[in-house]
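Aim 2, interim progress. The first record below pairs a target sequence with its structure tokens.
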Amino acid sequence: MKSFVLTGIKSMELREVPAPEIKSSDDVLLKIAAVGVCGSDIHYYNDGKIGSQVVKYPFAVGHECAGIVEAVGSGVRGLAPGTLVAIEPAMSCRQCDQCRSGRPHTCRRLRFLGCPGQAEGCLSEYIVMPQECCFPIKLTAEQGALSEPLAIGLYAARKALPLKGANIAILGCGPIGLSVMLCARVMGAGRIFVTDPIPERLQVAAKNGADRSGNPETQDIVADIAAQKPLLLDAVFECCGKQSAVDQAIELIKPGGKLLLVGIPETDRVSMLIDKTRRKEISVLNVRRQCECLHSTLALMSSGMLNADFMITHRFRFEQTREAFELVAGYADGVVKAMIDFAV
């Protein structure tokens, strides 16, 4: 089968590789239908690593995907060939202390699609996943792929509860920031402020749920928001991985509020002004992917309450994967989400 693999820094090739096979009774062989390009994929493309997770070349990334069932193991029930499924990229052991305590996303033996040292990604014609990671959908393949970042947004929003009537800011409105925005709106958030240095992304956010948007490179974001909300904000979601955004968040959060770190920093360390963080008694919460939120996300999408189709700004054929990565890596042409369509 064909697979797009990273072969070095900012280098990837389309190669012929052995097709995956069903080995366990709960395995499902899937023909990939759509893959969304994620910011974490771009970290691996640009830098060859995210923190301690270092790529050993060649390696296929990709984890936002939907596929069509081709064949199933002997123990699989309720998944017939031809079924379109959204795919949960996290494969947990369900036996360790983390899994037993309701934290399968931090499983001690976690295998995650497209994560170095864990599992090859979905930028291939076929993959094999356990049945518990396959969710039948009556959505489009693109919507199935979008459900993964949306599930992260839902998990982040849930960690900020209570959100009903809460005034919040989202610093960075790429796909993850927009996912947080959509989910927070569904959960009843009050005023939602968003920031981003890319004008096109601000326009997208303003059209789809943000009450006010601003560019941190041309505006005093803290002063602008504080002028409208003198008591400051209940929660701030840092979704861009930038030190400057962390600094702004500390200034924007009211005493007793929450800072949720969702973005992936390019550096190994970030810092915060401990005087204000401590005196305000700000709760600092890290958001690691999503924790069993895919099923709820798909239900919201199916009901029409959660629609993120607008996020897809660019579409590519599988053979154009390198072009998709270059576009996203360069933040070019106002890109929000680049989608790779295997059916074209």
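The second target in this work package is listed in the same format:
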Amino acid sequence: MEDPGVVIARDQVIAIIVATVFLVFGLAACAAAAIHGRGGVRLLLWQGIFSALYGARILAENPAGLSILPRSMWTGGDSAAATITYLILIPALLFWIEMSLRGLHRFLQIALVAASVNAACGVTAALTSHSPWRFMPYDKAIAVCFLVPLAVVNVVPSLTRRYMAFPSRILTVATSIAAATALYNNLSDWLHLPYSPTAEALTFAVFILCLGYVAAEKVFANERRLLSVENELAIARDIQRSILPESVPELHRLRLAAAYCPMAAVAGDFYEFVSVDPNRAGFLVADVSGHGVPAALIASMIKVAMQSVVARADDPREVLRGLNRSLTPQLHGQFVSAAYLWMDTENHQGRYSAAGHPPLLRWRDGVLERIESNGLLIGVRPDPDYPLCELTLRPGDRFLLYTDGVTEPENAAGEAFGDRKLEQTLRDGQSRTPLEVSDRLLAEIRKWQPAPMGQQDDITLLVVDVA
């Protein structure tokens, strides 16, 4: 017969090896989740914590393994094992909450609250009293209450499809075996059934490997979906760039610069030049409500709608009315602000009209003028009227058309960039070229915003000088 001491030592070594495998596997999963840093890896994180805690519990139940764990918090092996046992249910429930839908999701959330309260009480008792297992019956009851419906849902295909966010045959089999084992172990004390730590460890090893496989599979599925979305956004960005003017037109006695800075991959801002001849041109700036793909789609529609009003390019009122007629049936509750400036340098005349847009700014003789000629936003009514403002063009005039992304950015104190900073930037740049003024204004806006906040809205601006 083998020496009893040898048998005990061998069992302890095996337990330490098994526990180490669980710990390494769990910590690796947590590290992968932390490195990845996206919400889709929460499954991997909860699975990793569960695995690490399970390995730590095996060590805590083993005299030789207990010496590996930090001893500052433990009063003894029972204290360490009880503390870890109370906590291990929480990441398990968090994992299944991520995987569940509808009623099962809500039921598991309730179980999580109960498990958290019981864990708080149990850990306190384990660390401060001589009765570390006092709350363990409640822990076992919570485990049984959540394992039974979970096992049923995973075994019955119709329930799996209804209540599981990510159905998997591998997970179904693994969950059924693990649930049966856990139920047996939790009921063994009450029913005086034989208990086998080795069988439990092997079962949960298979279960944790399956959890890791499913979590990784979902992460990879999310990655493929995100990659597909990013590819589509890249295509959308290229398409949107293609509908914007490639360069500013060459016009007599006009110098201009345009800046377009989307907040995201695609934007709801739009601008267009309508160059009739070297002496006459129209300038449009528009801003679709909202951000992202929906706003970008409407912005692309403005490009098409502009083709229908080119014949009336010299009349800003008719340009905006034509855009409103074309776009209103397609907006479905969204709105567009727009401003259109027509300039005739041969006759020194300009015309301006807007639809719910920030005012046109004119810098003349050291004074900043705000020219407002606003009607309703495009999309509010089918046939609104837009007031028309007649302008006289003088050499040295500087005009600025822009979207509200120029004036609305806030600093760390919550103060908007506003008209005051805009006027100060224009005043400081009165001797600069339109391109230099545009670059300076964008730099001032970036400086105004705290770096962690990033750009808060799409920014578009046109600077036009009368030479």
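The domain at 249-466 is CATH 3.60.40.10 (Phosphatase 2c; domain 1). This observation will shape the mutagenesis plan for the next reporting period.
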